[in-house]
Amino acid sequence: MSPLPKENVKTDTIFYSLFKEFPSIFFELINQSTEQAATYQFTSREIKQLSFRVDGLFLPKNEASNQPFYLVEVQY
Description:
Elements: H1 13-21, H2 24-29, E1 40-43, E2 46-47, E3 52-53, E4 56-60, E5 70-72
Antiparallel strand pairs: 1-4, 2-3, 4-5
């Protein structure tokens, strides 16, 4: 398994800042327990394939866990 790309913060700064500071909001929006936020780190990554950047990612803090990761794409 290859490592994930380097962190990249060139994204929708309002939502990036919001989810970075208050990650429990994301879990509330997807109808999951807000306590799950403590087990995730929020970041932004660029995925090479003609350069595709997601607004953010919620990655499990424990890489060995069976928790899903979440891609965040905000439309407004």
